[in-house]
Known about the structure:
The protein has 184 residues and is α+β, with helices and mostly antiparallel strands. It contains seven helices and three strands. The chain folds into three domains: 9-50; 61-109; 118-184, no CATH class.
Amino acid sequence: MTNRKKKGYGHIREKVTEAELNHFIEEHKDQYPVQKMCEVLAVPRSSYYDSFEKTKSKLEQENQELTKEIQRIHLESKARYGAPKIHKTLLNNGFCLSLKRVQRLMRKAGVRSITKKKYRPSPSKEKVVQLDNLLKRDFSTCTINEKWVADITYIPTVRDGWCYLASVLDLHSKELLAILFPVL
């Protein structure tokens, strides 16, 4: 038997919702086989059977309860705790479950810990050139701009990430010039 449809069926089908089709099949399942009605109405049988409200299994209910508890612990830790610490906290609260289950539930719920890796500057590929010590620990001066000393350091900032702080000090006037610029 060929599965031909009339030309106008597509236009009619656009105006009928899945819920209405499922309701129609449910009403007439005593008169006609469900498989045939699904075939004629172009509704997958799996979609029809999935439309019925199912009771949740004990495992699903337990997973829902655990997910709520995981989210609560995560919020209490200011989103810092990851799966190992949440797992340990759950065990201390009397729950019995594995770390893998906690990881799976966290992934499914979209719960992630805030991790911030420590900045470690990578070594330069260029050879370090040793410069001569011009001051030789003689910091006495007679005039302005005779001797300057400088230093550079990294500073974490919220807006620009890591920045360099370059500071130059005139040894006579003790005037400080500081420049902050982002790491490129």
